[in-house]
Design a protein that fits this description.
Length: about 170
Amino acid sequence: MTETSPPAENDRESVRLRRPEKRDAQSLWRLVCADETLDTNSCYLYLLQATEFADSCVVAELNDEIVGFATGFRPPTRPQSLFVWQVLVAPSARGMGLAKQMLLYLVEQGEAVQFIEATITPSNAPSRGLFASLASRLGAAIEYSRCFEPADFGASDHEAEELVRVGPI
């Protein structure tokens, strides 16, 4: 494992957040494939995220390289909510607060977003910390409720997932 030094302050200032585009899908997929924590999906999924769901997704660029992203969608049954599906920051850009910056960007860009939702396993302390920090920053409540049980995932030996809900914003 290669150690990376903390990002310089000027790096934080040069990060650009924007909506994803079709050409970004392969970069998003490669970031997920290189990460050991997120479920790996097909490149096709990231093509859909970057085109059909681009309004509820964001990429972070540093020196013209994608170093992070957050993907999500607006559930048809809860249009006031933004459901965050995946958040990832490349090792080279960690420690800059990018995950929270990307979620705040989505809140600011989304019309009438009153709640941010995601599912998180009980053991995923970094994601729990991210959403707690987001709730604090927004001055909003945070709630956890049961969502998916291990049996829902079949024989995949997947941990339960709880629904986290931040809001109202």
